[in-house]
Amino acid sequence: MPRILTVGVAQMGPIPRSQSRPETLARLIAMLEDAARMGSDLVCFTEAALTAFFPHWTIEAEQELDTYFDAKVPGPSTQALFDAARRLRIGFHLGYAEIAIEDGRKRRFNTSILVGKDGEIIGKYRKIHLPGYDAPRPGEPFQNLEKMYFEVGNLGFPVWNAFGGRIGMMICNDRRWPESYRVMGLQGVELILLGYNTPVHNPAMPETDDLGNFHNHLVMQSGAYQNGTFVVAAAKCGVEEGVDQIGQSCIIAPSGERITQCSTLGDELQVARCDLDLCNSYKSSIFNFAKHRRPEHYGLITERTGAGAPL
Ligand code: ING
Predict the structure, then answer these.
(1) CA of 13 to the centre of ligand 1 (A)
(2) Ligand 1 — pocket residues by CB below 6 A?
(3) Number of domain units in the chain
(4) DSSP label at 59?
(5) What's the pLDDT tens digit per position in 28-54?
(6) What CATH number is given to the structural domain containing 138?
(7) CB 45 within 8 A of CB 92
(8) Which residues are known catalytic residues?
(9) Global pTM exceeds 0.70
């Protein structure tokens, strides 16, 4: 019996700072209802799907910063999304800015959750690779202040048994680091969900601006193929608060091929039937880690200890 998972990638156009939460939720629910009409089991929403991507500007007052975070999910400002998903019997991935009270203090993370068809949260991931800077850079056309607004994620890269397979998550810049895929590949991941907010212009490396879409797909197609997993990637795109962001959201097969892709810079849903058993074709042959991978021979020198240690 093939394990077919029908997955929707739900790309979002800009979320203006002025947009109310109900208006934003209505956009997400509209794509959820589209996905239901197309027989979807699971929908991938983007990174920071509830707000504009506020790390692109400087926010001095903590009270203002808090307005971009959610402390209780599901909660009053997201319940309508959970209710719609439960009504439609569709699971979803959602990225949002999380405030958590842990170890007796307020902590802030760039977070994503995996929600089952029953509307219950299956798992949570907190972004580990935070790009950009921990202080504003004067003179730049926009900022990237994730290191200032978020802590590094403290949950690792878990993989869950869900939707009949092995499901994992990562967030945006994580996709540029092969470790993100391999740590989940070593746990047998079959489908990785992620969202991204990626400006066309990179102030730190303007010479790569024309390569943004290429690099976006390069890293995800490689990660999918080298770990025998599907990758579902949803962009927040278009010009959001003056920052032009790439789109080209897609679903990638374990072959590394993009099997569906968005072609606008707005709210757009694309759906693909993912046969999770295709993962095993790669995991049992060319990427059979047990048979072919030899970390004990890599002579890996870890930055911290300088001692050789298998990854
Ligand atoms: N954004 C970007 C990303 O990794 C970036 C940061 C932009 C890195 C352009 C390199 C080039 O896609 C987030 N939110 O991580």
Answers:
(1) 17
(2) 131, 172-173, 176, 196-199, 202
(3) 1
(4) -
(5) 999 999 999 999 999 999 999 999 999
(6) 3.60.110.10
(7) yes
(8) 47, 127, 172
(9) yes
